[in-house]
User: Which sequence fits this backbone?
């Protein structure tokens, strides 16, 4: 599971195997260790519960959990929905929360795309800055 934090936004990306584990066990978790001390770790998790809110967040020191309702998690896992999104507001503070399927990179290696969801835009690759290759849009090369 990939975690991205940028400014006031938080995004989790979930692979196919992780999605299967989430639906079976109700929770998936990753931990990163920053040093030898036991308190120098950070864990982040995704779980689904019988909650009424489609997506929410729970924070405790050294642990962040994104909580989905089981209904929303099933709909997302079984359908073609890319992700679940919500802006959480508290006073003047806002957090943009996203949980998405991890799609294959169109210009990534097979190793980079291991266990990703098939990209719905496969066959569509746009030249990036500094690219010398042809631009491919749909099935035509320009």
Assistant:
């Amino acid at each position: 599971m990939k975690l991205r934090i940028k400014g006031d936004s938080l995004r989790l990306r979930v692979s196919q195997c992780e999605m299967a584990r989430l639906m079976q066990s109700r929770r998936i978790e990753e931990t990163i260790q920053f040093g030898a001390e036991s308190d120098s770790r950070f864990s982040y998790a995704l779980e689904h519960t019988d909650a009424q809110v489609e997506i929410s967040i729970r924070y405790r020191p050294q642990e962040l959990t994104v909580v989905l309702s089981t209904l929303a998690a099933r709909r997302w896992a079984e359908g073609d929905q890319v992700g679940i999104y919500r802006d959480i507001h508290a006073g003047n503070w806002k957090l943009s929360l996203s949980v998405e399927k991890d799609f294959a990179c169109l210009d990534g290696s097979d190793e980079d795309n291991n266990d990703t969801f098939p990209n719905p835009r496969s066959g569509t690759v746009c030249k990036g800055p500094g690219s010398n290759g042809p631009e491919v849009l749909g099935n035509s090369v320009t």
Observations:
- Confidence is low (pLDDT under 50) at residues 124-142.
- The two ends are 35 Å apart (CA to CA).
- Residues 2-102 form a domain with the Gyrase A; domain 2 fold (CATH 3.30.1360).
- The chain has one domain: 2-102.
